Every structure is written in structure tokens, then in C-alpha cells.
Amino acid sequence: MPRSKAQRTRLPGMCANYCGREAMKGRAICLFCRETKMRQYWRRVADGICTICGREPAMSDLRTCRECAERRTRTMNRRYKKLRERGMCTRCHHHRARPNRTLCLNCWIKTGQRTLAAQTPL
Ligand SMILES: [Zn+2]
Ligand SMILES: [Zn+2]
Ligand SMILES: [Zn+2]
Questions:
Q1: 25-34, pLDDT tens digit by residue?
Q2: With the C-alpha atoms ordered 2, 85, 109, 62, is the resulting torsion angle positive or negative?
Q3: DSSP letters spanning 71-116
Q4: pTM of whole model > 0.70?
Q5: Do 107 and 115 form a contact (C-beta atoms < 8 A)?
Q6: What percent of the chain has pLDDT over 90?
Q7: How far is the CA of 56 from the centre of ligand 3 (A)?
Q8: What is the per-residue pLDDT across 35-67, written as a single tens digit (0 to 9) for each?
Q9: How far is the CA of 63 from the centre of ligand 2 (A)?
Q10: φ, ψ (nearest 5 deg) of residue 57
């Protein structure tokens, strides 16, 4: 499904909001846009409205309205499924997952530090 916004090409290293500023290192947006977004986000949290659409009242524990939460879950599931089908890491989306796993070696080591106790030792 083509979206008109996607037709605008983003220059590498530039902010994804097309504000004309340089994006932060390793980020899609610039510091200015990030701060604006965060301010907006926390204002919505404080007002108890959805942090995604900013229109509907948020469900108490999710900070988003039901509709946005469902849409996000659907998108995440789709993305997850696609990554799994392609054998890509479901965490970083950049590296190949280890055979029969959903994470690449890198992410596996990183997350493993937290879940080591739950896993059988190699
Ligand atoms: Zn920006
Ligand atoms: Zn919403
Ligand atoms: Zn990874």
C-alpha cells in the first residue's frame, strides 16, 4: 500500500521528520524532534490520553487507547512473523538469527545476560 509520505526520500543522516536538521548518530531523528516528541509524549501521559494518536483517552496501564494498542500489536506480530520467515533476528532486525532461534548471536548474548538463569547451560 503506497503512502504519499514514503515517496519523499530521506537523505542519509538527516532527520526523518524532514525538519532539515541532522539526525542524531544511530537515530532516525534529530535531537530537536526527539525532545519535541518526548515533551508531547509526557504531556499526553500526564493528560491521560493516548500517546500514539493523541485523541482518545488512554487505557490506564498502556498509555494508549484500545484502538492504537491493537493496531500496534498487529503491526508487531506481522513484523515478528516476517522476520522469523526470513530467518532474521527479531530484536535488532539486522542480523541473521541463529539456527532454530529468533535472535542473532549478538542479541542472544545481550539478552542472555538477563535470562541466563532461565536457560540451560551450553
Ligand atoms: Zn528533526
Ligand atoms: Zn490512540
Ligand atoms: Zn540481533
A1: 988 999 999 9
A2: positive
A3: HHHHHHHHHHHHHHHHTB-TTTSSSBPPTT-SS-HHHHHHHHHHHG
A4: no
A5: no
A6: 68
A7: 34
A8: 999 999 999 999 999 999 999 999 988 899 999
A9: 9
A10: -65, 140
